[in-house]
Amino acid sequence: MRDGEGIWGRGRTGGHAHPKEAMHTTFFILGGTMLIGVISDTHLYDRAFELPKAVFDEFSNVDLIIHCGDVTDKEILDSLKDLAKVVAVKGNMDYLNLPRKEILEINDIKIGVIHGDVVYPRGDRLKLRLLGKEMGVDVLISGHTHTPFIDDCRDILLLNPGSPTVPRCPLKSIMKLSVEDKLEAKLIPIEE
């Protein structure tokens, strides 16, 4: 939350959850809007050598950054932490000690975060929707496909920021969320 827009707090329940269990983090926003940067599949050093500067520029004004896995090197998380608080989940290529799932609660909106490698076929929207319902969330953010999407799938919003480094479509991308009384998602193309 930027200066003058109110205050927010954070509480984490569950301590160190088993990797298959979801960590639960609660954010309280009192007045104003919370901006969230969302990124996934950065693959630092196994497929990419650096994160594009445009990512840092786009995330320079966010309150929180969500990384949906396949970080592959702690350096990415450390550099993102210089910009904002970071919540990250473990991807299938990660050897970092991260939870497999996170559930964030921002005011009355529950946001689930997974990598998405448990869904087959890759990125199947019906299976993602069912997983989100099982997690009890209003919004499910995943990665793994390296392909961005915003899909209002009946009673759950499905989001995927794509990849800013190794996309499986022509578009390198990240996402920004704006949360006040409702959540709005915007796909951000990354130019090099």
**Average pLDDT metric:** 85
- Determine the structural class based on helices, strands and strand pairing: mainly beta
Looking at the chains present, what oligomeric state does this protein adopt? Answer: single chain
Largest sheet: 7 strands, mixed
What's the arrangement of strands in the largest beta sheet?
1-2-6-7-8-10-9
CATH C-level: Alpha Beta
What name goes with the CATH superfamily?
Metallo-dependent phosphatases
Whole-number count of domains: 1
- Specify the helix fraction band: 10-25%
Q: How many angstroms separate the termini?
A: 28 Å
Count, helices:
3
User: How many strands?
Assistant: 12
Give the CATH architecture: 4-Layer Sandwich
Shape category: globular
> How is the CATH topology named?
Purple Acid Phosphatase, chain A, domain 2
User: How big is the Rg?
Assistant: 15 Å
Poorly predicted residue ranges: 1-19
Residue fraction in strands = 35-45%
Secondary structure blueprint with pairings:
Blueprint: E1 7-13, E2 22-30, E3 34-39, H1 53-58, E4 64-67, H2 74-81, E5 85-88, E6 101-106, E7 109-114, H3 125-135, E8 139-141, E9 149-153, E10 156-160, E11 173-179, E12 183-189
Parallel strand pairs: 2-6, 3-4, 4-5, 7-8, 8-10
Antiparallel strand pairs: 1-2, 3-11, 6-7, 9-10, 11-12
Task: Explain how this protein is built.
With 192 residues, the chain is mainly beta. It has a single domain, classed as 4-Layer Sandwich (Purple Acid Phosphatase, chain A, domain 2). Helices cover 13% and strands 36% of the residues. The strands form two sheets. A seven-stranded mixed sheet has the order 1-2-6-7-8-10-9, covered by helices on one side. The protein is globular. A divalent metal cation 2 binds at residues 70, 92, 115, 144. InterPro entries: Calcineurin-like_PHP_lpxH, Metallo-depent_PP-like, MPP_YfcE, PdiEstase_YfcE_CS, Phosphodiesterase_MJ0936/Vps29. Keywords: Hydrolase, Metal-binding. Belongs to the metallophosphoesterase superfamily. YfcE family.
